[in-house]
Design goal:
There is one protein chain. The chain has helices at residues 22-26, 44-57, 66-79, 122-127, 154-165, 209-221, 232-236, 268-283; strands spanning 2-5, 8-11, 29-37, 40-41, 85-92, 109-115, 129-133, 170-174, 180-183, 187-192, 195-198, 225-227, 240-245, 249-256, 259-260, 286-287. It is α+β, with helices and mostly antiparallel strands and 290 residues long. The protein has 2 domains: 2-115, D-amino Acid Aminotransferase, Chain A, domain 1 (2-Layer Sandwich); 122-282, D-amino Acid Aminotransferase, Chain A, domain 2, CATH 3.20.10. The two termini are 22 Å apart. The mean pLDDT is 97. Bound molecules: 3-[O-phosphonopyridoxyl]--amino-benzoic acid.
């Protein structure tokens, strides 16, 4: 595997960053997880736009242009000869000293990893995911902006630990007010009487790229979709539920806190969204090998 760090490709064993990098010392940095399918990168522009927004929000100066990062991302995939896989794009604050101020970090560090991705086992896509509500709340916007895809993921990691220890596949995270925000690495959607609902970004959801794609799909299929604050009641009493994320794609959720959602099986509208999503990922995107 060849890994891009600040303009140079290194073999995995030599791909290293400084122990004084503030990404490591303070979780000071941002990232994107991007998928490519069938020789095309899915929604590359949207992912890079979100990365630039994250950079702006944390006052990090990107060390290269949008076009340069786009070219570097495609080149990293080519260097690894992949057609299907996953890109982890990381921008850290860079090398500094043992004080948390980023003033001592002269240049941000850009890392691009292109690899295969471990999917959930196929049976999870057939059967659906089991969820529990986590005691760990989604970070409050006044503490750690939840819309920023930052390297500070301890909040989500702790929620994931809770879900795993409870024997569930995913953890549902509530915001400070007790409204549904999202899962530990996925956005959540419920369906009731044919209409799709998802929490707004201001309720603590990440502005997911896959989430945006689901809005497009529903509009195209004529399925009503809206953003609205939700409580756990809305999930318990939904007819269907599904989760979205670059890693998870679109996947049904069939249980929350031991209550089966609907009839406890992936629902019909969920299936239609999944089919349309698969078509989009296999047929659209930025061509890698021109
Ligand atoms: N919420 C959170 C907190 C996320 O981290 C999503 C929602 C879904 O967003 P996208 O843009 O992917 O539709 C994410 C994304 C991983 C991994 O390595 C995590 C994500 C994406 C890709 C890989 O666990 N999270």
């Amino acid at each position: 595997m060849k890994i891009y760090i600040d303009g140079v490709f290194y073999p995995e064993s030599e791909a290293k960053v400084s122990v004084f990098d503030h990404g490591l010392l303070y979780g000071d940095g941002i990232f994107e997880g991007i998928r490519f399918y069938n020789g095309r990168v899915f929604r590359l522009t949207e992912h890079l736009e979100r990365l630039w927004d994250s950079a702006k929000a944390i006052a990090l100066k990107m060390p290269l242009t949008f076009a340069e990062l786009e070219a570097a991302t495609l080149e990293t995939i080519r260097q690894n000869g992949l057609r299907d896989g996953y890109i982890r794009l990381v921008v850290t604050r860079g090398k500094g000293n043992l004080g948390l101020s980023p003033d001592r970090c002269p240049k941000a560090c850009v890392i691009i990893i292109a690899d295969k991705i471990q999917l959930y086992p196929e049976e999870k896509y057939q059967q659906g995911m089991v969820m529990v509500t986590c005691a760990t709340r989604r970070a409050a916007p006044a503490a750690l902006l939840p819309a920023v895809k930052s390297l500070n993921y301890l909040n989500n990691v702790m929620a994931k630990v809770e879900a795993t220890h409870a024997g569930a596949d995913e953890g549902l995270m509530l915001n400070e007010q007790g409204y549904v925000a999202e899962c530990t690495g996925d956005n959540i959607f419920v369906i009731k009487k044919g209409a799709v609902t998802t929490p707004p970004v201001y309720a603590g959801a990440l502005g997911g790229i896959t989430r945006d794609v689901v809005f497009e799909i529903c509009e195209e299929l004529g399925i009503p979709i809206r953003e609205r604050e939700m409580t756990r009641y809305d999930v318990y009493t939904a007819d269907e539920c599904f989760l979205t994320g670059t890693a998870a794609e679109v996947i049904a959720a069939i249980e929350l806190d031991t209550r089966p959602i609907g009839d406890g099986k992936p629902g019909a509208i969920t299936q239609r969204v999944i089919e349309k999503f698969r078509k989009l990922t296999s047929e659209t995107g930025t061509v890698i090998y021109g």
